[in-house]
Write a structure and sequence with these properties.
By secondary structure, this protein is mainly α. The chain is 78% helix and 0% strand.
């Protein structure tokens, strides 16, 4: 999701960057939406390490 955020959550651009099919990135977005609180905690913890 951190990479997606760099592309303003644009699925096509994120998929291109990662060399993934857009369906795979969409699935990631769907998962993140379903588990938003957990994803936000994980992202915050990851940013602390940067």
């Amino acid at each position: 999701m951190m990479i997606a955020q760099q592309y303003a959550n644009d699925i096509a651009r994120t998929a291109e960057h990662l060399d993934f099919r857009s369906e795979r990135v969409q699935a990631t977005f769907d998962y993140a939406a379903a588990y938003q609180a957990e994803i936000e905690v994980a992202l915050a913890e990851s940013r602390k390490g940067l």
